[in-house]
Specification:
single chain, 273 residues, alpha/beta, UDP-N-acetylmuramoyl-L-alanine:D-glutamate ligase, six-stranded mixed beta sheet, three-stranded antiparallel beta sheet, 12 strands, 21% strand, globular
Length: 273
């Protein structure tokens, strides 16, 4: 009997022990969208919504073995990268990434808590080795400033101009997340830009910061790509998905919110101590 086909995606990222971002958020997102998620773990972090207590990069041999294991046995149609802690990690990923793969690069540099998750040297490796191979890059505004050398980006026009610099690095398209624009705005506009297309994807702005929203968005776009959507449609659908995951955010004991891609309804269960 012929086995049913399940679309497969792979996330290459760091592990978040709090479950709100990184590999854990990516897998929850893939699962919610009916996609089988494979993983390549680049770093093990001890973190929660407030702080990153420790971070240990996975050695390049183990990283290579993980990639070989995944690509040998699974029909991976798209890969999403997240936390890549150093230049050696980026070089290893680039060397072992299949050439025909659709690559979504989420240039994770700093955690929501403010802790840096990559070395300064990794920035040039990312720009030289992975962004030129990317079908899509998904920076937020601070990450876009780091990628393009700008001090500030405060408007849609400035987001677009900086996005063109990312395209000049070789990326097919860029989706710039607008959550860091003026907080008094009622919406959170993202800008999609490719060589032949430009549009703004608007969404609601919620009055709280959410841990893992960038991971969730990039993972959702990756999932929609392996399901057969075009890149522009995958970005539109990904925005809708992450907006719901932010709307239904789950609070940690600290009171800070975590993105909720898995459909858990806050308040559904009463915790008995």
């Amino acid at each position: 009997m012929e086995q049913p086909h399940i679309p497969c995606a792979c996330t290459i990222a760091g592990s978040d022990s709090g479950g709100g971002a990184g590999i854990q958020a990516d897998l929850k997102t893939f699962s919610a969208l009916g996609v089988w998620g494979c993983t390549v773990i680049t770093a093990v972090t001890a973190q929660n919504t407030c702080d990153v207590l420790s971070s240990l990069a996975v050695d390049t041999h183990t990283l290579t073995c993980q990639m070989e294991a995944v690509f040998q046995d699974f029909a991976i149609h798209a890969v999403k990268t997240g936390m890549l802690p150093d230049a050696a990690t980026i070089m290893t990923v680039a060397e072992n990434l299949p050439k025909e793969i659709s690559l979504v690069v989420d240039p994770v540099m700093i955690a929501t808590s403010g802790k840096r998750l990559s070395t300064p040297e990794s920035l040039s490796a990312l720009c030289d080795l992975l962004i030129p191979r990317a079908a899509l890059v998904t920076p937020n505004i601070p990450e876009l400033c780091a990628l393009t050398g700008r001090k500030t980006i405060t408007t849609i026009d400035e987001m677009t101009d900086a996005g063109r610099d990312v395209l000049a690095m070789g990326a097919d398209a860029v989706l710039i997340k607008g959550g860091h624009l003026a907080a008094e705005s009622e919406t959170s506009p993202d800008v999609f830009l490719s060589s032949d297309e430009w549009f703004v994807i608007d969404g609601p702005r919620y009055p709280y910061e959410v841990h893992g929203s960038g991971c969730c968005l990039a993972a959702a776009i990756t999932a929609y790509l392996v399901r057969g959507d075009t890149l522009p449609d995958a970005c539109r659908e990904g925005k809708v998905f992450v907006s719901r995951a932010i709307r239904d955010a789950v609070p940690a004991l600290s009171g800070r919110q975590m993105v909720n891609p898995g459909g858990i309804v806050p308040g559904m269960f009463v915790h008995k101590r």
